[in-house]
């Protein structure tokens, strides 16, 4: 946990660091090429993954930059959010995300959950705290608690843990393009530069198809 917090601090310290110019983007600098590519969830599409934690302040600060970019992604790109599960409240928040996703309301409530934690001071660390908050957002309490403890959500938790291990991540936010390239705010030089790296790698993958 200490290393994860340190990673977040370092990420914040470099928010306005070195700008990533397309001509200068290369493996070993702004991104790492994984030794063993990870299969994508939708073959035939270029996958962009963001691993995050609702409790991470830098994930929250990344949202206003990331979301408009995601909305403009072309049809051949599939964007996927995956919660990082490093134990404790990380797992609780990850289970919250996966539950909302299973209920098909995550897209409506993702930003609201972030705001509740970072602006309203809610911990949302237990199912009851989560349910109390979600009721204010129009979510049925019993339906949420049933989904939260469902086999399907628990299966998705195990899948998320395995993917994080395969991506070899040790902090958040971090992005993966097409199961091959890993990069983050620190390596890229800032939030906007991170998306420049993503665009570069999307183009790189598109050229090979």
UniProtKB/TrEMBL annotation:
<keyword id="KW-0732">Signal</keyword>
<dbReference type="GO" id="GO:0042597">
    <property type="term" value="C:periplasmic space"/>
</dbReference>
<protein>
    <recommendedName>
        <fullName>Thiol:disulfide interchange protein</fullName>
    </recommendedName>
</protein>
<dbReference type="InterPro" id="IPR050824">
    <property type="entry name" value="Thiol_disulfide_DsbA"/>
</dbReference>
<dbReference type="InterPro" id="IPR013766">
    <property type="entry name" value="Thioredoxin_domain"/>
</dbReference>
<keyword id="KW-1015">Disulfide bond</keyword>
<dbReference type="InterPro" id="IPR017937">
    <property type="entry name" value="Thioredoxin_CS"/>
</dbReference>
<dbReference type="GO" id="GO:0015036">
    <property type="term" value="F:disulfide oxidoreductase activity"/>
</dbReference>
<keyword id="KW-0574">Periplasm</keyword>
<dbReference type="Pfam" id="PF01323">
    <property type="entry name" value="DSBA"/>
</dbReference>
<feature type="signal peptide">
    <location>
        <begin position="1"/>
        <end position="22"/>
    </location>
</feature>
<dbReference type="InterPro" id="IPR023205">
    <property type="entry name" value="DsbA/DsbL"/>
</dbReference>
<feature type="disulfide bond" description="Redox-active">
    <location>
        <begin position="56"/>
        <end position="59"/>
    </location>
</feature>
<keyword id="KW-0676">Redox-active center</keyword>
<dbReference type="InterPro" id="IPR001853">
    <property type="entry name" value="DSBA-like_thioredoxin_dom"/>
</dbReference>
<comment type="similarity">
    <text>Belongs to the thioredoxin family. DsbA subfamily.</text>
</comment>
<feature type="domain" description="Thioredoxin">
    <location>
        <begin position="9"/>
        <end position="203"/>
    </location>
</feature>
<dbReference type="InterPro" id="IPR036249">
    <property type="entry name" value="Thioredoxin-like_sf"/>
</dbReference>
């Amino acid at each position: 946990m200490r290393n994860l917090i340190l990673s977040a601090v370092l990420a914040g310290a470099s928010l306005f660091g070195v700008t990533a110019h397309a001509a200068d983007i290369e493996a070993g600098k702004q991104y790492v090429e994984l030794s063993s590519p990870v299969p994508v969830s939708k073959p035939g599409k270029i996958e962009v993954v963001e691993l995050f934690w609702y409790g991470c302040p830098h994930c929250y600060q990344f949202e206003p930059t990331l979301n408009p970019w995601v909305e403009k992604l072309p049809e051949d790109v599939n964007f996927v959010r995956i919660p990082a599960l490093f134990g404790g409240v990380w797992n609780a928040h990850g289970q919250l995300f996966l539950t909302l996703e299973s209920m098909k309301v995550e897209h409506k409530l993702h930003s609201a959950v972030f705001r509740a934690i970072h602006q309203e001071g809610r911990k949302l660390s237990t199912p009851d705290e989560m349910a109390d908050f979600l009721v204010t957002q129009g979510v049925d309490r019993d339906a949420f608690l049933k989904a939260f403890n469902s086999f399907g959500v628990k299966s998705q938790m195990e899948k998320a843990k395995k993917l994080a291990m395969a991506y070899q991540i040790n902090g958040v936010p971090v992005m993966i393009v097409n199961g091959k390239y890993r990069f983050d705010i620190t390596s890229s030089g800032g939030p906007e530069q991170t998306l420049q790296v993503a665009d570069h790698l999307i183009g790189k993958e598109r050229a090979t198809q």
